[in-house]
């Protein structure tokens, strides 16, 4: 990668000069959390933000971050505001539950997810990536391609194949993309209205409708699988995550998931399994599109490692720069930019008195852009993850998957999927930013671009899979 591109700064919202007051924060926060940040946010160890409903304590001190996420001294459950925002989509699933309920669900989910290990998931990921390439060849002939929509389609297809042993049709993927975009458009104003104790203006109802459109994908498949298991119990099961969840039993009572609980878990695995990866992969495609030299180096490495053969697991291990590209993307554009935890007991941190019910925010967005941890923190430099001097920061100040007992269960899954998708994309296409303004990141439930990420895709003849 060229030295100039190593110092290139991809787009992010210019921080406010000073902390916004209540009214200005309401107006700005209506559309995006990261736009409310101010200059000191990127340097401070700990800050306080007051809303009419709650006090936020933003913690960037790494020792305190570890204390919270590792739950070293006391429980730090997910805050009720976050579970309220997610309930229409995920119900009381492993993502939003707390305490004993979360522990029991995690004990049931872990074996199910392990059942679809990386080796078993590889063929599904490769098949979905190959299908993506075919669709992009057709789409690219029509003009610039919105990579947010394209990456949502491929990651939703991956997780659908892993959950249900069948591909997700392009029309279904488009429906998921549109429904979750609607949910995000309503959830951010809903959060601001709740924080300011204002009427919700029908936002809850609109969120519920968008969530129902997504969850409607699963119910028929679950019903059909249950009927098939009952009628054809001598036939081999598909061996996917749905089968594993149907076989899962509560660690204490031995009970299976109730039907509604099963749908909650499937919705969580589907949404958490594709939305965050889609966000990061869309930004990764933009970053590499802006660096033609890096892009060509990666395409050449892919060709040297795999030739025209289908991608294999051993190829991924020989492509460390693709992994570093994705790690750097996750540093600059963490899909979940703010982790919300609830204060459960009165305590003092850095001289600030915290009461039960207060909200603690650990922000990957801020920690991963703090100059105390990363040199040139806003610059795109994937090589930093290959440097020995970055190992401490990569271990302690890189947390796109969280840390501690609630670390993302799908971290390895997401990293493997990303390398497969990016390798497939780069062996088929040259990428370039579409004419027009750079994409603008906005942070709601996940990090997305305000108007998408359009790229021009040109076939890379001679490197495609035979």
UniProtKB/TrEMBL annotation:
Matching Gene3D superfamilies: Cytochrome P450
Record-linked InterPro entries: Cyt_P450, Cyt_P450_CS, Cyt_P450_E_grp-I, Cyt_P450_sf, Cytochrome_P450_Monoox
PROSITE patterns: CYTOCHROME_P450
Keywords annotated in UniProt: Heme, Iron, Metal-binding, Monooxygenase, Oxidoreductase
Annotated SUPFAM superfamilies: Cytochrome P450 (SSF48264)
Protein family membership: Belongs to the cytochrome P450 family.
Protein name in the entry: Cytochrome P450
Species this chain originates from: Novosphingobium pokkalii
């Amino acid at each position: 990668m060229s030295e100039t591109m190593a110092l290139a700064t991809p787009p992010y919202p210019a921080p406010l000069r000073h902390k916004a007051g209540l009214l200005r924060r309401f107006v700005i926060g209506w559309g995006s959390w990261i736009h409310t940040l101010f200059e000191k946010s990127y340097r401070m160890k700990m800050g306080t933000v007051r809303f009419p409903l709650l006090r936020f304590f933003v913690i960037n001190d790494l020792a305190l971050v570890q204390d919270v996420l590792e739950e070293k001294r006391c429980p730090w459950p997910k805050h009720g505001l976050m579970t309220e925002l997610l309930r229409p989509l995920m119900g009381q699933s492993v993502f939003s539950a707390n305490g004993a309920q979360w522990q029991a669900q995690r004990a049931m989910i872990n074996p199910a997810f392990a059942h679809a290990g990386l080796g078993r998931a590889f063929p599904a990921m490769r098949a979905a990536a190959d299908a993506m390439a075919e669709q992009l060849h057709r789409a690219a002939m029509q003009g610039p391609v919105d990579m947010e929509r394209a990456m949502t389609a491929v990651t939703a297809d991956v997780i659908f194949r892993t959950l249900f042993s069948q591909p997700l049709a392009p029309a279904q993927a488009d429906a998921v993309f549109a429904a979750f975009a609607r949910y995000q458009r309503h959830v951010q104003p809903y959060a601001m209205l709740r924080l300011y104790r204002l009427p919700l203006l029908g936002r809850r109802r609109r969120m519920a409708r968008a969530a129902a459109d997504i969850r409607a994908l699963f119910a028929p498949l679950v019903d059909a699988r249950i009927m098939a298991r009952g009628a054809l119990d001598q036939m081999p099961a598909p061996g996917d995550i749905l089968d594993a969840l149907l076989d899962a039993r509560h660690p204490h009572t031995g009970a299976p998931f109730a039907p509604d609980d099963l749908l909650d878990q499937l919705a969580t695995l589907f949404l958490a399994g594709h939305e965050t990866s889609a966000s990061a992969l869309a930004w990764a495609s933009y970053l590499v599109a802006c660096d033609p030299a890096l892009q060509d180096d990666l395409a050449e490495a892919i060709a040297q490692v795999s030739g025209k053969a289908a991608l294999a697991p051993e190829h991924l291990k020989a492509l460390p720069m693709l992994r570093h590209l994705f790690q750097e993307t996750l540093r600059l554009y963490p899909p979940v930019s703010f982790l919300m935890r609830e204060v459960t007991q009165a305590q003092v941190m850095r001289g600030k008195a915290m009461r039960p019910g207060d909200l603690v925010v650990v922000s990957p967005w801020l920690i991963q852009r703090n100059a105390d941890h990363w040199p040139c923190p806003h610059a795109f430099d994937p090589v930093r993850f290959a440097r020995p001097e970055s190992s401490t920061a990569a271990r302690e100040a890189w947390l796109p998957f969280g840390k501690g007992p609630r670390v993302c269960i799908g971290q390895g899954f997401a990293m493997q999927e990303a390398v497969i998708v990016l390798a497939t994309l780069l062996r088929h296409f040259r990428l370039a930013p579409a004419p027009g303004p750079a994409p603008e990141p906005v942070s709601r439930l996940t990090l997305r671009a305000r108007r998408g990420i359009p790229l021009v895709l040109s076939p890379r003849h001679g490197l495609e899979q035979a």
